[in-house]
Amino acid sequence: MADAGQAETARERALAHVAARASGDPVDPALRVTVNFHPDRPAAGGRPILAALAESGVYASQFVTGTSNGGLTAHPGGDRWRWESRIFGGAYDTAPAAERPVYGALDFRREPAGAAPRFGSAHFRLTGHTLERTTFCYPDSVFEPWDFGTAGRMALVALARAGGRDALDDYVEAQVHGPVRLDRDVEALVLDPCYRGTAVEEAARALPCPLEWHAGFRLGVAELRRRPDYRGQEYVDLGARLAVRGVLDPRVLGDAVTSGGHDQQAVKKVWHCLARFGAPLTATLRGSHPRRTVPDAP
């Protein structure tokens, strides 16, 4: 295992490699990186994810957790490993899993539900000081992009605004290098109000960071049925079956996953429909309105 000095060298090499390929003016220091996730999904070993985070105090990468709301390819030779090797010039190829970056997105649109809700209804909003150790790409690294950025050189926001991608895909991916500690690197955990009064809220209150709420994802079955071309008719039908009193929200889909009675990949497609067409303040998806979240009552 690499010692601390070697790990720091790998991080520095990765940051320098991306900086040499980046261009543009510095990023607006008022912008934040957000890390979207589903707060009611199990972590490794089946433990609730927020309970695991409260114990570790650190948000870790897929290479450590073995879990993801995207593809599970974080292993030597897997797609995630290969993408990181390309983006960071091989800096992490032999580094310990714990040293690899955490993924999020730059919230340049100041979205109330975070910059990349396709990965979950909740998000950690990171502090401004994490920008200096963050690299960026557009589009998502799954597409093996050629456009990169850093806090000092950020031309990606203009690319994203002109990109014309679907709203769930139109984000600037962020890779935060070094540990993401909840007590030091997180401004707030922002939850959907469907979790008020639940075990998720109780677990959130045990974390060493403030709690906030956005306006909530909600999608009626009637609206869902108008969107069969988005992810497919079978997912519209599944969503209609899962809906409670004709409405989908993140908690309904979380219950469908944890019950074990539904294919997780199928539920993920239903989530994409809910995230795309039932987002809080949906009109801001392609706007530049101020972030609107509500701090938790003391």
TrEMBL record:
One Pfam family of this chain: DUF3626
Q: Which InterPro entries match?
A: DUF3626
Instruction: Provide the protein name.
Output: DUF3626 domain-containing protein
State the organism of origin.
Actinacidiphila acidipaludis
